[in-house]
Amino acid sequence: MEILQSDDGKKGAFYIEQDGERLAEMTYVWAGESKFIIDHTEVSDKLAGKGAGKQLVAKAVEFAREKAVKILPLCPFAHSVFKKTPAYSDVL
């Protein structure tokens, strides 16, 4: 599954598209230049059980590490993934 990203400098999203349809999306907003807030994650039933949500979080962590910024996971799903994945604590 390829995870794509859009970012306009104020807000953005990590998402998965298939045949022109967005099947999974995790949105975020920038809080200054050094932190972004994950505010929503949604995965279509078409991708249920395939780990798409966790892959979106992993891509956000990779992005945060590349940009040397922090993540505030306000979305309940993203928050639970961070709690279960100690390896991601460096970007919190």
Automatic annotation (TrEMBL):
Highest taxon of the lineage: Bacteria
Residue ranges annotated for the N-acetyltransferase domain, each copy included: 6-92
InterPro entries associated with the record: Acyl_CoA_acyltransferase, Gcn5-rel_NAT, GNAT_YJDJ
Protein name: N-acetyltransferase
Source organism (scientific name): Lacibacter sediminis
Biological classification of the source: Bacteria, Pseudomonadati, Bacteroidota, Chitinophagia, Chitinophagales
